[in-house]
Design brief:
Order of helices and strands of chain B: HHHHHHHHHHHHH
Largest sheet of chain A: 6 strands, mixed
Shape of chain A: elongated
Shape of chain B: elongated
Number of domains of chain A: 2
Number of domains of chain B: 1
Number of helices of chain B: 13
Radius of gyration of chain A: 24 Å
Oligomer: heterodimer
Strand order of the largest sheet of chain A: 6-7-8-3-9-10
CATH architecture of the largest domain in chain A: 3-Layer(aba) Sandwich
Structural class of chain B: mainly alpha
Number of strands of chain A: 14
Distance between the termini of chain B: 30 Å
Chain lengths: 309, 270
């Protein structure tokens, strides 16, 4: 069941179009990565989905609520982590959370605050002023704030931006926990590794939606599947034998590696290994060639820029 | 629910207010400075200018109006008539306390949250705009009002301490109570409402501060109108004025809600 649905969602700011005709759906329990360069419309889309700004054209439905009409009801069922943590430095961590939790009638603020302070590893510092917290602690507290009312959908706008690697890793660990709990998360990020690590599907936006699929399918869209056979040493004879196999479409030699395109990589793999061994080749390993998601992303963005020009 | 949310905002605002030295100073000490200044002016005027002040046209007109309102004043010697005239101004002078506190506190209430980014997080909760604005206005107006009443008590103690206690019957009248318990709350809420509205529209803290200067002008006008004898504020007139400002409070809240542009705040402040 789709928890987030957009229908031709668009937003102009004066003469500038920030988001154009974006249509997609996010299923319940899915973690969707929302990728795009700076100014691509990620934050604008999140703000429209969270009912903070209205679309110029089109509309969105989140957890059953039109984001441009049922704003108050929508805000009861979504959680949002904004780019800035937006906490009160002079108040304690607990007081900060109690304040925000106090706007939701359906929850026991005190027990929810305790639950999430513990989950975020901040319970010991609950009575410390937020002004004394590190950036990573503030981000974890802001995440606790976004979760304290048990939202159906969570919007995270660049949650690890500006954090040191350790703090960013901690935030990612928490997002992974949310994924395991089956929460629906809409994660806007610049970080491709982070998106791949955490998200079941990835959307790439550059004003328009350029792609939306699983990381694996996105790779296949641009790159054919290739198998890498690691030999003990470079062996031209083995390469020649492999070239003659009927299911081998293409062979590249790269030092002691053979990079192959096969008709059916799963089914052909045992026969391939057998043929190499029979030809006297010593196989160290066979693996599928992994193209970094970054290459897919850059191809998409480059294509879009070419189309624009 | 609205009451719960407004209470939530009030408690948070107070927690912030009293952990900020500047705001705590303005709220707790400024009222006594204003009141001390008023008492000092009266003492100096009586000590060094005395009855000669009454020879001026302005004070003669004002005194005439005072005698019309409180005939018993006519039986007093000239210097005591002057003293009653000056002491009678203090209830309007007290209105400066909530307006000055509003200038200092309310005008930053929204701008500060815009700058820290907490406003965007707040606007993602189910809080309604009117709840937010009223909560913020009340959070400033209530302590300002309490401090005004405490200052009024201090004033009465000072009147007694300076040996002017015999005249307090001419000063602490029905009009005095109406001013203190009806007009002052209405003015306090209006000042804070305007301060919060100005803060929500301001593009930066300086803009908010400049807008705040306008809040205090009507209070100066009231003081000027009474001391120059243009109008003497009788209990009925104070009642009418309090009612009018009460209506203005409501209109100010509606206007502030109308002027509060959630979208612009979210988009323009990052």
């Amino acid at each position: 069941m789709a928890v987030i649905e957009t229908f031709g969602l668009s937003r102009d700011f004066g003469k500038t179009t920030a988001v154009e005709d974006v249509t997609f759906a996010v299923e319940a329990g899915e973690v969707l990565g929302f990728l795009g360069p700076n100014g691509a419309g990620k934050t604008t889309t999140i703000r429209m989905l969270a009912g903070m700004i209205a679309p110029t054209k089109g509309y969105a439905v989140v957890a059953g609520h039109r984001t441009d009409r049922d704003v108050e009801q929508l805000h009861e069922v979504i959680g949002m982590l904004t780019q800035m943590p937006g906490l009160y430095d002079r108040l304690s961590a607990r007081r900060n959370l109690e304040y925000f939790a106090g706007f939701y009638p359906s929850i026991q603020a005190r027990s929810q605050v305790e639950k999430y302070l513990r989950l975020m590893g901040l319970w010991e510092r609950r009575d410390s002023k937020v002004g004394t917290f590190s950036k990573g602690m503030k981000q974890r507290l802001a995440l606790a704030r976004a979760l304290a009312h048990e939202p159906k959908v969570l919007f995270l706008d660049e949650p690890t931006a500006g954090l040191d690697p350790e703090a960013a890793g901690e935030v990612r660990r928490l997002i992974r926990t949310l994924r395991e709990e089956g929460r629906t998360v809409f994660l806007s990020t610049h970080n491709l590794n982070e998106a791949e690590m955490l998200c079941s599907r990835i959307a790439v936006i550059h004003t328009r939606l350029l792609a939306l699929d699983t990381p694996e399918q996105l790779r296949r869209r641009f790159f054919r599947r290739q198998l890498v056979v690691q030999l003990e040493a470079p062996d031209t004879q083995v390469a020649q034998v492999v070239r003659k196999l009927p299911f081998v479409q293409e062979v590249h030699e790269d030092g002691s590696q053979l990079i192959l395109e096969l008709t059916d990589p799963e089914r052909n793999r045992p026969e391939l290994v057998k043929a190499i061994v029979e030809a006297g080749g010593r196989v160290i390993g066979v693996s599928e060639k992994q193209y970094p998601l970054e290459e897919v992303y850059l191809k998409l963005i480059r294509e879009e820029k070419q189309n624009e020009s | 629910m609205s009451r719960r949310r407004i209470r939530n905002i009030l408690l948070k605002e107070w927690a912030l207010l009293f952990t900020d030295l500047n705001s705590a100073f303005v709220i707790t000490l400024l009222p006594f400075l204003v009141m001390g200044q008023a008492i000092l002016y009266i003492w100096v005027a009586r000590r060094f200018a005395g009855e000669s002040m009454l020879t001026t046209q302005v004070f003669q007109t004002a005194l005439q109006k005072l005698v019309e309102a409180i005939p018993g004043v006519a039986q007093l010697p000239g210097d005591e008539q002057l003293l009653v005239l000056l002491l009678s101004q203090v209830n309007f002078f007290l209105l400066l306390i909530p307006t000055m506190i509003a200038m200092s506190v309310a005008t930053f209430s929204i701008v500060d949250e815009k700058l820290s980014g907490s406003l965007e997080a707040l606007l993602a909760t189910p809080v309604r705009t009117w709840e937010l604005l009223l909560g913020k206005a009340l959070a400033g107006a209530i302590p300002a009002l309490v401090m005004t009443w405490i200052s009024a008590g201090v004033f009465l103690l000072a009147v007694s301490g300076l040996g002017w206690g015999d005249l307090s019957g001419f000063v602490v009248t029905t009009g005095w109570f109406l001013t203190l318990f009806l007009l002052t709350p209405a003015v306090a809420l209006l000042s804070f409402m305007l301060g919060v509205a100005g803060s929500s529209r301001a593009k930066d803290p300086r803009g908010a501060q400049n807008a705040a200067l306008l809040i205090i002008l009507p209070v100066f006008a009231l003081i000027g109108i009474q001391i120059t004898g243009i109008v003497w504020f009788t209990p009925l007139l104070i009642l009418v004025l309090a009612l009018a400002i009460g209506i203005a409070d409501f209109i100010a809240l509606r206007a502030a809600v109308h002027l509060f542009r959630r979208e612009s705040i979210v988009v323009q402040w990052r």
